[in-house]
Amino acid sequence: MNIGIVSNMFPTPDKQMSGIFVLQQAKALSSRGHQMTVVSPKRYIPDLAAKLLNRKPSSKIPKEDSYNSISVYYPRYWSLPRPETRPIVAHSVRLTLMKQKHLFESVDIINAHVALPNGFASIPLAQSLDVPLVTTVHGADLQHSIHRHLQKKQIRDVFRASERVILNSEKLRRIYSRNFSQTEKAEVIFNGFATDTAINSEPLQRDLDSFRIISVSNLVEEKGHKYVLKALSEIQSDVEYLIIGDGKLRNRLEQLATNFNVQEQVTFLGEIEHKDVFPYLKSSDIFILPSYEE
Which of 108, 146, 149, 161 is deepest in the core (most CB within 10 A)? Predict the structure, then answer.
């Protein structure tokens, strides 16, 4: 089967961990003999605007790339920065995908990761090619976007146009059932990972006299790292805390560790390659992530 994946979260050469779960799915399907074509629309950010906004310009992202036998294309779309503009952005991505229709000419099915913008953008593409659309929801669509009227309407259009809606948790299924009809379309498939990478990795050497806890995630508010730091300040024992990941809250969390006087116990490791995460996990005693939503 020739499978077309539409995901703006797919990794790029400069952000190799972003959306790695989509890449791993594509690799797993490829290993089973399916032909994969990935289209990952990226925001168009001119060099001057990127400099003013302290962001990386889109010119740094290649127009196409490959991961073994998987071809990946990165077309650009016009975007606006505010969450309220997401319905407009969804239309922008839709126009971009239709311009890339030639990349999908031989696909048998389209799998869009997230309803907005990718599922909405893929509706006319799938209809024009007369192929089924499967939409995978990772969380934000059903936990944030549906609370805005126009976005909820677009998400409803996506679910109506999809042959199947894949949800990654029972929580999302409950939200789906409360807000949308055609519940028979929804299926829960939990996120997975490459088990051979985890099994074959060796734990790192460490001081066994201490107790090690670890978090792995983007450093954003909803992940709840601050609660771990606060709890750490109240524990009168030799505990070390490793934080893998990066994000906009890093400086604030580093300052918070200092404020709680636990900076000597906390190590910010930053973003590391996925395969290198497992040795850290295997050398730790507890994984902890008090996320608000997951």
Answer: 146
Q: Is 218 exposed, middle or buried (0-12, 13-18, 19+ CB in 10 A)?
A: middle
Instruction: Look up the pTM and report it.
Output: 0.87
Secondary structure E strands in the chain: 2-6, 35-39, 42-43, 64-67, 70-73, 76-77, 109-113, 133-137, 164-167, 186-188, 211-216, 239-244, 266-270, 286-287
Structure-token match 């999809």, residue found: 162
Distance of CA 161 to the CA centre of its chain: 23
Nearest of 198, 209, 200, 177 to residue 287 by alpha carbon? 198
Write the pLDDT tens digit of every residue in 136-181: 999 999 999 999 999 999 999 999 999 999 999 999 999 999 999 9
216, 287 Cβ separation under 8 angstroms: yes
- Could you give the CA distance from residue 133 to residue 179 in angstroms, rounded to a whole number? 21
Best CA proximity match to 161, nearest among 120, 201, 200, 191: 120
AA letter at 214? I
Across 269-293, b (16+ Cβ under 10 Å) vs e yields: eeeeebeebbbbbebbeeeeeeeee
Residues forming a β-bridge with 187: 166
The gap between the terminal CA atoms of the chain, to the nearest Å, is 33
